[in-house]
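Hi everyone, sorry if this is the wrong subforum. Our group has a chain we'd like a structural model of before ordering constructs, and none of us has done structure prediction before. Sequence below.
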Amino acid sequence: MKKKILICFISLFVVSAIFSVQKSSQVTTNSKVVITGYVVSKGNVPFVYPVIRTEDGTEYMIVCKDKQKQKLLNAQGTLIKFTGTLNEEGFFVLKKWKVLK
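Answer:
Right subforum, don't worry. Here is the predicted structure as tokens:
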């Protein structure tokens, strides 16, 4: 009887741990993220794309429309506050941005 109760508690713990990990990973990918950093261009001409470089050195590739991409590439070297979400691949999906300096 004690073994059945112990097995039941262990299985409930394992199941709750599995579901809590999946739920937290979904929240981080769909939640609003605000990043402050500088725009840096990566790639070779004609395949240049903008990247956000934060002050701690982390880089995020930006997913945006071509017009926004060109405006961001023209704003290289300025401190910008970016608002958006992180998608499943780890890219930053840009919603809006504002120049701080």
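For your construct planning: The CA atoms of residues 21 and 27 lie 10 Å apart. The two ends are 69 Å apart (CA to CA).
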